[in-house]
Write a structure and sequence with these properties.
alpha+beta, 43% strand
Length: 148
């Protein structure tokens, strides 16, 4: 992790960082965050909810993690909102800035033919989120419970 910051050493509230996404610098100021566990069709999901201001736009960002495939890989997905200020494309960039600021890793962004934009995170993003006291225990528990 960048800066040598250890697990549980940070808190989300008041966290601030500058990051660059697609050549543009964004200022990310986190207001709050939490995790929510959910069972859907026998699958255990982990939602990471972050309230952040990115370049003056305050929004709630939610990434839903599940286990996928034969190798049980942890994948997190989120969708850019068409209703967000600036539209989907701008929302996807702000979302990517939040993820990169908190985890130190840029998420993958997929643009679908129908206009949908998917922001995808993996295990290294989960490890980055675990640096924050508000998220660490729930992420660790979810990883243990869903491991096969």
């Amino acid at each position: 992790m960048k800066g040598g910051k250890e697990r549980d050493s940070l808190t989300l509230k008041g966290f601030e960082e500058r990051v660059e996404v697609n050549g543009k610098t964004y200022v990310v100021k986190v207001r709050d965050g939490e995790t929510v566990e959910e069972d859907r069709d026998g699958r255990k999901l982990l939602r990471i909810k972050i309230t952040a201001e990115v370049d003056g736009v305050l929004r709630d960002y939610t990434i839903t993690f599940s286990r996928r495939g034969e190798d049980n890989v942890a994948i997190g997905r989120a969708y850019a909102s068409v209703d967000a200020p600036g539209g989907r494309e701008t929302d996807a960039e702000r979302f990517a800035a939040v993820v990169e600021a908190l985890t130190g890793a840029e998420p993958r962004i997929y643009r679908m033919k129908d206009g949908t934009i998917i922001i995808e995170c993996g295990r290294r993003h989960l490890e980055g989120f675990k640096r924050f006291a508000e998220l660490a225990d729930a992420i660790e528990k979810w990883l243990e419970v869903t491991d096969r």
